[in-house]
Write a sequence for this structure.
């Protein structure tokens, strides 16, 4: 009997059946997002043990919609049916000790490989249906060029319910697009046990910081944004509904993932 292979389940004789290949993982995509302010108590309520409110920007958050292409080491991007996906998530400001960070309480994807990578990293991914306006190089009424006045819509649904919709109107390019990504993201890697007597003692309970290599931002534009969250059964995104919109933005980005920084390990 040989050793089963694969970075994730399902483990298999050749490792081809695994939900996602081993890292390093490489991503490229387009982001449409809205920066906003919400109820500080609502953002604070989502924080795990180890993170604190940011007294300077309590209630500050961002909602992002992304159209992604992924590859690992075997030209996975040539298998678009398996490795393209769309994603939507919310990030809220927080502090880890004296470091300003962002925390991801809710995130949705439309692809099982992305779900597996996310759980491995600590993103609490759920399945959803995400769409956003794309920009195309050939000009025309549907091309949504990167230009002043261009508008980009985006939506998130899950299980037949509309959870979020956004619209961004571009105003001006941003010279330093990296300024839109100034805080690292902190995540909770959490995997419970099912065995009786251990169900409140998770096998993995790690506060971790997301690590990105070769982060590149291109074509960043900023403008105005609209964002609405809908009420839905089995969801709590609505509690973070905006009470003030800061801005809307759109950019392209790429980065690689080959590591994770464990901040605190509370695994039992």
């Amino acid at each position: 009997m040989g050793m089963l292979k694969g970075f994730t389940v399902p483990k298999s004789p050749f490792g081809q059946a695994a939900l996602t290949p081993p890292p390093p993982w490489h991503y490229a995509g387009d982001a449409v997002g809205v920066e906003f302010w919400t109820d500080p108590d609502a953002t604070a309520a989502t924080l795990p043990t180890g993170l604190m409110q940011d007294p300077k920007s309590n209630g500050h958050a961002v909602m992002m919609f992304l159209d992604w292409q992924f590859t690992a080491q075997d030209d996975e991007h040539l298998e678009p049916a398996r490795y393209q996906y769309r994603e939507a998530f919310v990030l809220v400001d927080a502090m880890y000790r004296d470091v300003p960070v962002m925390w991801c309480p809710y995130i949705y994807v439309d692809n099982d490989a992305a779900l597996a990578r996310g759980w491995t990293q600590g993103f609490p991914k759920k399945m959803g249906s995400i769409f956003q306006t794309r920009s195309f190089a050939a000009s025309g009424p549907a091309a949504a060029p990167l230009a002043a006045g261009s508008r980009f819509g985006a939506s998130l649904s899950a299980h037949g319910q509309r959870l979020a919709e956004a619209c961004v109107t571009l105003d001006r390019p941003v010279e330093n697009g990296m300024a839109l990504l100034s805080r690292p993201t902190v995540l909770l890697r959490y995997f419970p046990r099912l065995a009786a007597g251990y169900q409140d003692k998770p096998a993995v309970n790690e506060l971790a910081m997301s690590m990105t290599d070769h982060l590149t931002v291109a074509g960043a534009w900023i403008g105005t944004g609209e964002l609405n969250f809908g009420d839905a059964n089995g969801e709590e995104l609505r509690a973070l509904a905006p009470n003030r919109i800061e801005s809307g933005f759109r950019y392209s980005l790429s980065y690689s993932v080959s590591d994770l920084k464990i901040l605190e390990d509370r695994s039992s």
Observations:
- The first strand starts at residue 25 and ends at 37.
